[in-house]
Design a protein that fits this description.
The complex is a heterodimer.
Chain A (H helix, E strand, L loop, with lengths): L1 H21 L4 H21 L3 H26 L11 H22 L17 H10 L2 H22 L5
Chain B lengths: L3 H21 L3 H26 L3 H31 L13
Helix pairs in contact in B: 1-2, 2-3
Classes of the chains: A mainly alpha, B mainly alpha.
C-alpha cells in the first residue's frame, strides 16, 4: 500500500519538476509546478518515516519559499522570451550531456542493492526525537543557523532597498 | 515499505532535471527555482539514507539544508529585484559582465 503511494508521489514530483523546467512561457505556472513537486516530496518524506521533515517541507517550501517566488514574479511583471536564439543549440547539448552524466552517476550508486533498512525505534523521525537530537548534539549548528537567518534577512532588506543612504 | 533504492533513484532524477533547468533556462527566477529543486533532491537522498541506517543525523542535516535554502532564496530574490530595477531584465544573458 505504501509502495503504491510512493510511486504516485514520485510520478507527481517528476511531472512537477518537468513542468517547471520545460514551461518557457509562463513563470507563474513554473512556480506552481514547483509547489506540486514540493508537496509530493513531503508525502515521500512521510513514507520514509521522516514525519517532522515532511511537515516542515510543506510549511517552509510550499508555504513560504514558493510564495516568495510567486510574489517576486508578479511584482516584476515579466514579458520576455526565455531562450535567446543564438547559442541555444550549444547550451541544450551541453545541458543534455551533463544531465545524463548526473543521472548515470546516481544509477551507478544504486546498482549494488543497499539491503534491508535497519530496524527503527518507536517514534523515529517524530518531533520528540528530532528535537532532542537538535537541542543536544547539534545545538551549536542550530544556533549558527539563527545567525545565518539574521544575516540573510538584513542582506535581503539592504539589497532590495531602493537607495542605500 | 518503500525500497531505499527507488527513493535514491527519484532523488537522482530530480537532481538531473534541476541541473538541466539551471543550465538551459535564461530566466533568473527559474534558475533559482531549479537550484531549489536540486536542494530538494539532496534532501530526499539524506532522508532515504537516514531511514536506511536508522540514524537521525540525516534528518538534522535536512533541517539545516532547509534553513540555508530559505536564506538563499531571500538573498537571491533581493538580488533579482535590485537587478530588475537597474537593468529592466531578469535574463542571465544581460548580466554576463563577469563572464570571460
Amino acid at each position: 500500500m505504501s509502495l503504491l503511494f510512493f510511486y504516485i508521489f514520485a510520478a507527481i514530483a517528476i511531472a512537477g519538476a518537468l513542468g517547471m523546467v520545460l514551461n518557457t512561457r509562463n513563470t507563474v505556472a513554473s512556480a506552481l509546478s514547483l509547489v506540486l513537486t514540493m508537496v509530493a516530496l513531503g508525502g515521500v518524506y512521510v513514507l520514509l518515516e521522516a514525519y517532522l521533515i515532511g511537515a516542515l517541507q510543506i510549511l517552509v517550501y510550499a508555504g513560504a519559499i514558493v510564495v516568495l517566488f510567486l510574489f517576486v514574479v508578479m511584482l516584476l511583471n515579466l514579458r520576455q522570451p526565455d531562450f535567446s536564439p543564438q547559442r541555444q543549440r550549444v547550451t541544450k547539448i551541453a545541458a543534455a550531456v551533463i544531465g545524463v552524466l548526473v543521472l548515470l552517476q546516481f544509477l551507478q550508486l544504486i546498482h549494488g542493492a543497499f539491503g534491508a533498512p535497519a530496524a527503527i525505534p518507536e517514534g523515529f523521525g517524530g518531533y520528540r526525537q528530532v528535537g532532542t537530537a537538535l537541542f543536544t548534539d547539534y545545538v551549536l549548528a542550530f544556533e549558527a543557523t539563527s545567525l545565518l537567518l539574521l544575516a540573510a534577512m538584513v542582506g535581503a532588506v539592504i539589497l532590495a532597498k531602493r537607495k542605500i543612504d | 515499505m518503500v525500497p531505499i533504492e527507488h527513493a535514491i533513484a527519484l532523488s537522482g532524477i530530480l537532481f538531473a532535471i534541476g541541473t538541466v533547468g539551471a543550465i538551459t533556462r535564461r530566466n533568473l527566477i527559474v534558475v533559482l527555482m531549479s537550484i531549489e529543486l536540486m536542494l530538494n533532491a539532496v534532501n530526499l537522498a539524506l532522508v532515504a539514507f537516514s531511514r536506511l541506517w536508522g540514524n537521525l543525523d540525516g534528518q538534522i542535516f535536512v533541517l539545516m539544508v532547509i534553513v540555508v535554502a530559505a536564506a538563499e532564496v531571500a538573498v537571491g530574490l533581493g538580488i533579482v529585484i535590485s537587478l530588475f530595477r537597474n537593468r529592466e531584465s531578469v535574463n542571465v544573458e544581460d548580466v554576463s559582465l563577469l563572464k570571460w
